Amino acid sequence: MNASLPVPATITTIRPLTDDTTLYTLDCGLNTQNNGVASFLPGQFLELSLPGIGEVPISYCGFPSAGGAIELCIRHVGHVTTPLNRSVAGDAVGVRGPFGHGFPLDSYENQDLLLIAGGLGMAPLRSLLLALLNQRQRWGELTLLYGAREQGALLFLEELLQLAKRNDIQVQLAVDRLEHCLEGPPNCRVALLPALLEQLTIRPDRTCAALCGPPVVYPYLVSGLKRIGLPDERIHLSLERRMKCGVGRCGHCAVGTFLCCCDGPVFNYAQLAGIEGALA
Amino acid sequence: MQKHITQQNLNTLLDTLIKEGKRVVAPRLNAGTPLYEPLTSSAEMITDQLPKRSGKEAFFPLCEDIMSYEKEGQQIKLTDIDPARFPETVLVGVRPCDAAAIPVLDAVFSWDYKDEFFLERRNKTTVVGVACTTADDACFCTAVGLSPSDTKGSDLFLTPLEGGGYHCETQSEKGEALINSHQELFSEPNGSKTVPLARPQTEKFDLEKVKKWLDEHFEDPAWDSIATRCVGCGACAFVCPACHCFDIVDEGTEKSGKRRKNWDACGFWKFTHHASGHNPRDGQPKRYRNRIMHKFKYYDDKFGQTLCTGCGRCIRLCPVGIDIAQIVEELNKK
Known about the structure:
- The complex is a heterodimer of chains A (about 280) and B (about 325).
- With about 280 residues, chain A is an alpha/beta fold.
- Chain A has two domains: about 5-100, Elongation Factor Tu (Ef-tu), domain 3; about 105-235, Rossmann fold (3-Layer(aba) Sandwich), CATH 3.40.50.
- Chain A is built from seven helices and 15 strands.
- In chain A, strands 10-9-8-7-11-12-15 form a seven-stranded mixed β-sheet, sandwiched between helices. In chain A, strands 4-3-6-1-2-5 form a six-stranded antiparallel β-sheet.
- The longest helix of chain A has 13 residues, at about 120-135.
- The model of chain A has no long low-confidence stretch (mean pLDDT about 90).
- Chain B is an alpha/beta fold.
- Chain B has one domain (about 1-334).
- Helix content of chain B is about 30%, strand content about 20%.
- Chain B has eleven helices and eleven strands.
- Chain B has a seven-stranded mixed β-sheet. A four-stranded antiparallel β-sheet of chain B has the order 5-4-11-10, with no helix packed on it.
- Chain B starts with a strand and ends with a helix.
- At the A-B interface, β1, β4 and β6 of A face β4, β5, β10, β11 and α9 of B.
């Protein structure tokens, strides 16, 4: 099988989340021909094609076992994702994947989990969150910190506010600024993620942190987590690189000796600690 | 197995292979530019010039189709390319620096995922290397542990004889099969001497020492001064026998077209640029550092080899005169 060959998938629903970000549901079909593209682990990614325009790496955003359907949360900023905005339900796109290593769910058994998402980083972490909630009894305490530029940029806000009402998960939201809103939604503060982190009480010996955000926040979050005593191996972060082939040949996603597409995109910080420029 | 072959018989061999339907790729002039290209006749082969680009194109073309697409209404049809269509190939007249890069590429294209486009061509190709009798001041194969008579990557290795013809030494079963398939054109070695080979004027680098410095100096002021002139044209990567990064792009109309794999270069600013505007390698020094790191550290970390065979093409071609051999030589002194 040529791993460069996508399979067709059909857009079934299109749900705008913010001004520039949309949640797509794709039907990949249940036949085996779809090459398992709908069987993924949270944190893995796929390559999404608009034939004639190109192909881009996109994180899975939905629940990992949704019978041939996959959710992709896409910001319309690139050469493929901008024209994608003109798609309508029923349009076919190409998909291939899953690629890379996701979050190590099995190692999270009985652990407290701290999910920290910044901006569009909520997309892959939503997949992880849904997987964790689906087997809630397997894990210890669950905490989600999620920050975005402003209220209008918070993705899945309704969903997260619903979650915040549950007593088996702690959800804290933050925005960089209020903009035209006089006050933010409940559970939302005007703060940066590292500040939220500082006020958190965690049990470092039984907590794992899963991070996904823009590169700019990683150094602050990692040093914040280290300050509260989390060992490097317990800090898992998803690196963003320009993965093109997805199978470790094209060279675009190199991070030192690692290739983000097959060695990552989720790494534990112990793997990256010696690689300068990895968090850049 | 050791044999001799006359120049005339070598030409006959190539013409016979062409007649048999094999693709015979060798250095030839294309509008005055020497390149490894398929021959239509042995008369086109040249032996006195190093081709401008390396022999890697025989397995890893500059551009190649990897899929075709058709769109009809909301539906799309995506069609695979069948690698079985690639022809049997004999790559002839390959310089040791180019042949030595072939096993280097093998590692990349089969380390985890097996790239069937590369491997199918590779399996169907017999590599006939030829020893170098001349070197210019950009050649530095001896500095990276190779030599004008290095047989790495060759299935059959030719060394020119005094008075014409070649000494042939098989390096693999493929090389033996080539001789066995046309035995009548080869003769037993008759005592003729081989001509004196080239002697590049560079001393061997201590590559372990260079790597050790690279291990410890990701951040170093040297990078700014090394790369200050680099204009990011990517020429060095395009002529390199060992560089293997590629881009994937669609070419065609809205209705139909092809997806292609094209050579790419880590020196291009867009190579790592994200749609968000962020670029992990946001300056030419960082990009040039990656080039050196990949060649002399990252590749070595992963595959235990150096990603440079000292062909010197990047030195000859660089429009701003960056000399990788000189850079490594200086790192070697640190």
